[in-house]
Amino acid sequence: MRLSEVLSAKAGALVRLPITATVSQAAEVMKQEAVGAVVIEETWGRYRGMLSERNLAVAIAQHGRDLFRRRAGELMWANAPTATPDTTTADAMRLMREKRVRHLPVLDHGKALGVVSLGDLLQLDEPCGGTQHLFRAGLAA
Question: How far is residue 90 from each of residues 13, 82, 100, 110, measured CA to CA in Å?
């Protein structure tokens, strides 16, 4: 199975914010949309990075209350691992395990098409090329 198929099956739309959004705005959108990560884009729609729950947790420890006045672009993970629509679910799981990430932006020519989460992949009926059990074992280790 390819990530394009996973994205097609997902009910929710891509949650994105401009690079100029505040961290407070990003946290509010994540809460409202019940997502663990948002895509950060330039004003013209080009992917710049991802802001996740993990980014927020680390930033709280570093910046304290000042954090929520900062811009999402300051805290986003600009070099987060990404995939393409043609990436297989098995390859996506391997990448997520190797990089120890729970969210994987799916890009096509610099534009974000969606974000595939660890939960999305673990819920698949397909055994992800036999890697699902290895991924779960890696999380327990």
Answer: 23, 14, 15, 23
Residues 6+ apart with CB under 8 A from 139: none
Q: Find the domain containing 131 and state its range.
A: 3-140
Q: Which helix (H) or strand (E) holds 98?
A: helix 89-99
**Residue 61: partners with Cβ closer than 8 Å, 6 or more residues away:** none
Instruction: Please check whether residue 38 is in contact with residue 103, taking contact to mean a CB–CB distance below 8 angstroms.
Output: no
Residue 112 pLDDT greater than 90, yes or no:
yes
Residue 63 sits in a domain whose CATH number is: 3.10.580.10
Please give the angle made by the CA atoms of 94, 86 and 93, to the nearest 5 degrees.
Answer: 15
Q: pTM for this one?
A: 0.83
